Amino acid sequence: MSTRTGLVDIGLNLAHDSFDADREAMIERAGRAGVTHFLITGSSIASTQTAIGLVRAHSGRYRCTAGVHPHHASEVDEASLAALRALAQAPEVVAVGECGLDYFRNFSPQDAQRRAFRQQLEIAVDLGKPVFLHQRDAHEDFVAIMRELRPRLAGGVAHCFTSGLDEARAYLDLDLYIGITGWICDERRGRHLLDVVRQLPADRLLIETDAPYLLPRDLRPAPRSRRNEPMYLPHILETIARARGESADALGAITTRNAHALFGWPDCA
Fold first, then answer.
1. Per-residue b/e over 178-214, b at no fewer than 16 CB within 10 Å?
2. What is the residue range of 178's domain?
3. Mean pLDDT of the chain
4. DSSP-assigned letters across all residues of 138-158
5. What is the pLDDT of residue 265?
6. What spatial distance separates the first Cα and last Cα of the chain, rounded to whole Å?
């Protein structure tokens, strides 16, 4: 593992119950690997509430998002929207989301997903906060909605980007950041991302683990646990830097500055 300092993991599901037994030890391991700041993903009302509590306990190192994942879009009603709006106003919250569209699983009907997506984008507009975005197998609808709302939004990141160059260019045209995870380390599904990251402007690139999901497949020796952790973020960064023919230290400094620029997070710069 690298000993570089100051990396920001902009996608960490720290409220996940798989971290309950060793959350503090996991963060200490990340710090020893040079990952010092963490954006905790809020993907439901409950996980957002937990995330805000975690930030309050570690305010210098953590910030969080507030949102409802498209899987739960059918649960969004007037009461939950009001609760989400109240949560999103907290100073610990630096972005609205995880919100977007997921037609791969369709755990919520597509019309409910589109409605909940628009509603959360409107909250972000009203609060002047950027958005933390999810899209899977819904590119055309996602871009159409974003094109409509983007002029009023403070910015955003296409979180856990796994698509191709055409989709990346569409998101860059929307002036979004692109979040790259350990998917790029998967020789079965992620090899195309090696070419995508070569084409991304450095000032649009963010890095994330999406832990506990998406453990990089090429870690050697292979971890005994399949649970991903933020201590593996330098491995993801090194993979991206190799693909781009750049220094991992220099690129890491850029991604940290990008996180600061998007989320307005002064103590991570």
1. bbbbbbbbbeeebeebeebbeebeeebbbbbbbbbbb
2. 11-268
3. 95
4. -HHHHHHHHHHHGGGS--EEE
5. 78
6. 22
Q: For residue 1, is pLDDT > 60? A: no
CB count in 10 Å sphere of residue 228: 24
pTM exceeds 0.85? yes
* pLDDT tens digits for range 204-240: 999 999 999 999 999 999 999 999 999 999 999 999 9
Total domains, the chain: 1
Q: Is 1 exposed, middle or buried (0-12, 13-18, 19+ CB in 10 A)?
A: middle
- The Cα 74–Cα 59 span in angstroms is 32
* In contact, 256 and 38? CB cutoff 8 Å: no
Q: What is the CATH number of the domain that holds 85?
A: 3.20.20.140
CA dihedral of residues 218, 231, 69, 21 (deg, nearest 10) = 110
pLDDT single digits (tens) 72-122: 999 999 999 999 999 999 999 999 999 999 999 999 999 999 999 999 999
What are φ and ψ of residue 189, in 5° steps? -120, -15
Contact, 260 vs 268, CB < 8 A? yes
Residue 52, in any domain of the structure: yes
Q: Which amino acid appears at position 163 of this protein? A: S
Q: Which residues contact 115 (CB under 8 A, 6 or more apart)?
A: 73, 76
Q: Is residue 23 a contact partner of residue 17, using CB atoms and an 8 Å limit?
A: no
Q: How confident is the model at residue 269 (pLDDT cuts 50, 70, 90)?
A: low
